[in-house]
Amino acid sequence: MNERATFGAELRRRRKAAGLSLTELAARTHYSKGYLSKVETGISAPNPALAELCETELGAEGELKPLLPGEPVRRRTRPDVRPSGLPPATSSFTGRAAELRAIRAALEADGGVCVVSGMGGVGKTELAVRCAHRLESGFADGCLFVDLRDEAGEPAAVHDRLLRVLGVPADGIPAEPADRAALYRSRLRGRSLLLVLDNAVSAAQVRPLLPAEPKCRVLITSRSRLSALDDATHVSLDMLPLDAAVALFTAITGVPAGPAVTRVVRRCARLPLAIRIAAARLRAHAAWDVAELDRRLADESARLGELDDGERSLAAAFRLSVQQLSTAEARLFGLLTVHPGTDVDVHTASALSALPFREADRLLDRLHEAHLLTQPDSDRYGFHDLLRAFATEFVLTDAEDGMKAFSRLTDFAVRTAALADREITPHRYFPEIVFDPGVPEPARLDDSEMAMSWFRAEWPGLVALCRTAGERGEHERCWQLAFFLRDFFFVAKLWDPWLETHRWARSSAEALGDTWALATTTANLGVAHVDRGDLDEASAYYGEALALFRRIGDGHGETTTLAHNGWAEHYRGNHDDALRDLRQAHAFYVRDGNRRNAAITDRGIALVLTALGRSEDAAAIAGRTLAVFDELGLDLDAAMALNCLGWAWYHAERHDLAASAYRAAADRAEACGSRYETARAYTGLGNVAAAEGSAELAAELWNRADETHPDLDRVMVGEARVRMG
């Protein structure tokens, strides 16, 4: 029995002993089922890479490699040269199973062309080389590997190099590029060959290199997506999954996985090149442990400098990508780092750059095409963490342009947040905001639904912008952003960012010496604490705000704070004090003609009266507020009024009226996007069902409430107290 047959027979024996089919082994090793079948039957020769993989998958360490044939015998289609110029495959390769399958499927198709694209350092070349090594044996005429970065981007130069490898003497290579291309296509006719084109810059560079011969296959790597190659299969590489990133680090260093290793690969943002450099630095310093490496990478401002092992530099890898950008693209790429959030939309990019909307959209698309920006949603663009650090340090070089961009950004954010706030809370008091001429136009928000969608998408970035505005001395914009975010935070029940933004806003108002802004911000901090159930904290803020409003003689601000404090006293159980404060505030609003605030205060009075045992009086007042809210178009307030009405009728033991009010509240709350009020309504409906002896229906309704908004606060939501007994 010859060596080849011995290898194939042993592989077949061990595969069957392991209970694996050829299909299953092919999936594990990423070799085709057809090729493995030919190896087992002795038609095709095995290779060391296959032997190593099969030993691992079949638990046969050291058993298959000795059976490899000394000189592989390959099927030939012609007697001339058979090139094989692949670089060696790295042994420390992890993950990418899905991408390997996609590439193999693309290259097994007739005339297959596959583009592997991704940001610098993501491991495109390693993946392509590994895949090519596994597929090379299926190409009778071998493999050609060309690093296009070495050829100055000229197809004619690449044709010259390839023709020489294909056996054409130097004096037989035409001088004219068109003739050279024709000869190249001619030399590939009838061949079965795998062509690997590494580091392609553009589709125009690659297109003249694509063979016309259908038995040839082409695997391309690029930092750009090369989307203009219509007939190619495109495989885009992202960061490694966390487990694969940890496995890569441990494979290189021999350090076992653990919390410190996980932190290191997270600081490397799961980027293979960054992980390899970090691992190399650890191996080069015998006195270091993983904790020391982690400490060095912890400083974000110094991280890029640490990711340099003397021969490989992450910054240098990123610089190659930026060098391919136009001046306008590079400027926008740098200016995007001025935004402290994680992603931006086209309107924000336009405001940052002072470019027309369409031009900003085009440039963002180009940066995404170059894998310098991610696209988490159809209309949003974001940074990879390490690319943001690089762009901040090396691309954003014009400090004055950056300062102007930040001012434009904060102006745009405040202007749009004010517009959105007016849509979701019409009739609320708004301070007059002054903008300089030329401030970017706000995003278009035609109704409350569009306004809520804008806030949901933008609020994390607006919170970051509020903080940064305060840090950079843009104090007016800091407190204004917090002010216009308040009502969205109330609807969404986002208490932590509500409190954070308003604490920064207080500091900014103090820095400005603006007593009204300080008083208003302090009162709104009280509202946040009441809404979260922190009543003592709320009362302390209300006390400060009352003193500030009285100092400047602001009767409206004083009254509103008094009304808010009345709500806090109600939740604390001091219902008589609450009723006094709320009635005093209500009288002021009626005299002032402020129907919205008067109705909101009436709703509070209805809750207090319910607690005092006057449920039918409460129901009558809640019903009147509903009519006002409907007339003013305040849908959320209407839903809250209906819940208040349901609460009053429940305590009056009019369960039919309570259920009717709660059902209407659920419908109205769902329509305006308030999960909190929706959950409150379903909790109330569950209470009604329980009171009527329908335990199964009550449980169903309470479960629905939990799915909508879990853990309603028992201090703030009476329905939750009843449910808990």
From TrEMBL:
Top-level taxonomy: Bacteria, Bacillati, Actinomycetota, Actinomycetes, Pseudonocardiales
GO MF assignments: ADP binding; DNA binding
Residues annotated as domain HTH cro/C1-type: 11-64
CDD domains: HTH_XRE
Sequence ranges of the TPR repeats: 679-712
Listed Pfam families: HTH_31 (PF13560), NB-ARC (PF00931), TPR_12 (PF13424)
Bias type Basic and acidic residues, positions: 72-81
Region (Disordered), start-end ranges: 69-91
Protein name listed in UniProt: HTH cro/C1-type domain-containing protein
SUPFAM superfamilies in alphabetical order: lambda repressor-like DNA-binding domains, P-loop containing nucleoside triphosphate hydrolases, TPR-like
Keywords assigned by UniProt, alphabetized: TPR repeat
PROSITE patterns cross-referenced by the UniProt entry: HTH_CROC1, TPR
